[in-house]
Amino acid sequence: MRIRTTRLATLAVTAALTLGGTVAVAASPASAATGGGDSDVSARAGLGSITGASATVGPDGTYTITWTDRWPGPMRVYASTDADRFTRLVGTTEGTSLTVSGLDPAKRWYFDITPAGPRAGVVTAPRSLGLQGAPNARDLGGYRADSGRTVKYGQVFRTDALGKLTDADVARLGGLGLDVSADFRTDIEITGNGVNRLPAGIPVENLPIADGNLTAITNAAVGSRDPIRQKELLGDGKAAAALENVYRGFVDDPAQRAQFATVLRDLADGRTVIYNCTAGKDRTGWMSAIVLKALGVDDATVQADFLASNDNLRARNEATKAGLKAAGLMQDPSLMDPLLYVQKSYLDTAFAEVRSRYGSFDAYLREGLDIDPITELRLRARLLTF
Q1: Where does the UniProt annotation place the signal sequence (predicted)?
Q2: Which CATH number fits the domain 138-385, given the four candidates 3.20.20.150, 2.40.128.130, 3.40.190.10, 3.90.190.10?
Q3: pLDDT at 214 over 90
Q4: Which of 99, 238, 243, 281 is the least buried, fewest Cβ under 10 Å from its Cβ?
């Protein structure tokens, strides 16, 4: 288990030292966008000075960091591959934007935006991990929680299956300080899609959660090659209804609840965790919703994180649909959309089941997941920062 310093301790010991390497910096007074980049829309707000911090990375590896400063003044920006320790100064500005190039593209970078004087800064980073073989891999940090706190970066990561990672992807994962990898896929899924590629030495927890017969339904529909049969199986809301039933199972099935609870306890114990299913959208999506709700993140943000899978997976999903049509397997591959994408109704169904069975999310934590108040406090202490 890697021991991490608190944010305030980090501020106390950070020296004004620029580490070796050449970094080019350009500052501007207004925020800028980087085409093709990835952004964090809800970074930590420190002690009230800086809000709306975000980081985007373009295809050329150039980062654009933007923020809103309620008390304008000199601003220092640091970069680090460790979200808890910042010593590499990459620029100063009196504006609200900084463009940084020259950082090693093989690594994941976090940025500390620190104003002059006693006011605390913020940490931000691109949401995506930038893995070529796992487009839905992302950091769950940066979201605002209750009491002005924010989820820490670099502690908990959600992703789709990691079996198709490139060597560069694996190397990038190696820089995240991972303590454990939790895999929600069944043995059949792992056999079909490949064992996760991980850096050496990372323990794997196999926490299989069944897909509620979705694989059988999908195979029957596609294998039939019959448009009428496919519509009977998937059309008129049937596919979406099947997914909603899967989400009810996340809440109702004691075995599934136990798998989700294992990851919560890992996080409460201070482990840096990456967890996945196949697409990183359903089992992984509900796991992420549990983590964020337990940390006090508001419902709108939890929903936005859940639905972000649609954009991350769109290119791959559309290619899958085009392939089905080109192969003559489906005349109307849009019937697959409820299976390939997530819908708000899926998450709503799970939370409705929580209320129906337990009355509240807090009761679900206690009774459904067997997370006692002390474990919840430890979870918040480890994953939240000011």
Answers
A1: 1-26
A2: 3.90.190.10
A3: no
A4: 238
Q: Burial, 386: exposed, middle or buried (Cβ in 10 Å; 0-12, 13-18, 19+)?
A: middle
- Does the structure show a pLDDT above 60 at 332? yes
DSSP state of 364: I
The answer to whether 196 and 171 have CB atoms below 8 angstroms apart is no
Pairing of strands 110-115, 384-385: unpaired
CA angle 161, 163, 167 (to 5 degrees): 120
The DSSP bridge pattern shows strands 75-80 and 110-115 to be antiparallel
CA nearest to 155, candidates 123, 191, 115, 194: 123
DSSP letter string over 81-134?
SSTT---EEEEEESSSEEEEE-S-TTS--EEEEEESSS---EEE--SB---TT-
pLDDT tens for each residue of 30-85? 333 333 344 333 333 344 468 889 999 999 999 999 998 767 778 999 999 999 99
Architecture, CATH, for domain 53-124:
Sandwich (2.60)
Tell me the three state secondary structure of residue 273: strand
Give the domain ranges of the chain: 53-124, 138-385
- Bridge partners of 79, per DSSP, are 88, 111
